[in-house]
Design brief:
Chains A, B: It is found in: Cell projection, Ruffle membrane; Cytoplasm; Membrane. Chains A, B: Residues 118-190 form the Thioesterase domain. Chains A, B: InterPro entries: HotDog_dom_sf (IPR029069), THEM4/THEM5_acyl-CoA_thioest (IPR052365), Thioestr_dom (IPR006683). Two copies of one chain form a homodimer. Chain A has four helices and eight strands, in the order αααββββαββββ. By secondary structure, chain A is an alpha+beta fold. Chain A folds into two domains: 1-89, no CATH class; 92-197, Hotdog Thioesterase (Thiol Ester Dehydrase, Chain A). In chain A, strands 3-4-6-7-8-5 form a six-stranded antiparallel β-sheet, covered by helices on one side. In chain A, β1 (66-68) and β2 form a beta hairpin. Chains A and B meet through α2, α3, α4 and β5 of A and α2, α3, α4 and β5 of B.
């Protein structure tokens, strides 16, 4: 790795690539709701294709994955749930409380729909997998999902404030047993429990 | 509902909105991999914001959800897994075999990343929830996820051909018990079983 690479200022890069991803999130959302006529759509499509070409001229072939900052912190740039650079990610901002609780508050819009006007059950599963997994992560020691069980109590609405939280119930050797849920302002909508594994080095 | 609305030609709309979503999927993918400089990013962002504004001028406030065609078929335009109009959806094209097997073959790129260069475990959960659920759907009788259990055997790579499949094991009253898995060319990576419920009308 070159010195130049070690000196990358990630906070500065965030201020460049974060707003780009946020713009694309807005485009994604509006593109699902628009009723624009075919002529407008064709013109907009050309504009988007030209934007893609400009970005592609300097695109790396592989995904951006987890990057390491000079001080050893990891940044999950491209992650499907928390990735600052990934327009598919809502993205969730995770909070880690001193007692081990991991939580996030967020609102999901049109791109996360399953039943009309409700969050896709699998999107709740995606988010719970990530947040339960985050309770098991340790610096430099990622944890992988072993099993995950979801119980859907009722539907989760789009466009409302949601909260996800999770905590560790117990650990046994390389296994961490975690529980958590998604809730709206009326209470829990989806419960989850999972076993997460730290692979032996 | 007006006659005009009843006469919407959905196959024609697919040919307008499908390519737009496909363009945005390419933009999403490239935006995660680009290393373009701040000046280029700013110019591209302006272009994207202008495209969003053009689409927003005629956007409905609510998501597009499930639309009904004149002949009573449902089209999940905005669905997070199969939605033709949803750039967040890969989208999966589901095949329903006469014996009840539901399957799809697909490749996932940068937007679906969890561990570096591998599919986010929660994305596999999202896809399995949808495909297991699809085994339980009947025309006009949607099924909702009751419980879903996932077992992760090993990691699933980005950029490789994947196959998901599911079938019904048994039904008990309003409950359908289904099983399925995600596999790559070397075999199963994630197994799932789920209980899906047809709400009493």
């Amino acid at each position: 790795m070159s010195d130049e690479k070690l000196c990358i200022d990630y906070s500065q890069l965030e201020s460049v690539y974060g707003p780009l991803a946020e713009s694309i999130r807005r485009l994604v959302d509006v593109s699902i709701r628009t009723e624009a006529d075919p002529t407008t759509i064709a013109a907009v499509k050309d504009k988007i294709d030209s934007a893609t070409e400009e970005l592609e001229a300097s695109a790396r072939p592989d995904p951006f994955g987890v990057q390491l900052t000079p001080d050893g912190q990891t940044i999950a740039w491209g992650n499907a749930v928390v990735g600052l650079r990934n327009p598919v990610a809502p993205p969730l901002v995770l909070h880690h409380d001193p007692d081990g609780l991991v939580w996030s508050e967020f609102v999901l819009g049109a791109p996360y729909e399953g039943p009309p006007e409700h969050v896709h059950g699998g999107v709740s599963a995606l988010i719970l997998d990530h947040v339960l997994g985050a309770t098991a992560h340790r610096p430099g020691k990622p944890a992988y999902t072993g099993t995950l069980t979801l119980r859907y109590r009722r539907r989760t609405a789009l466009g409302r404030k949601l909260r996800v939280e999770a905590h560790v119930e117990r650990t046994e050797g390389v296994k961490t047993f975690s529980v958590g849920h998604v809730a709206d302002e009326d209470g829990v909508t989806v419960e989850a429990e999972g076993v997460f594994i730290h692979p032996r080095q």
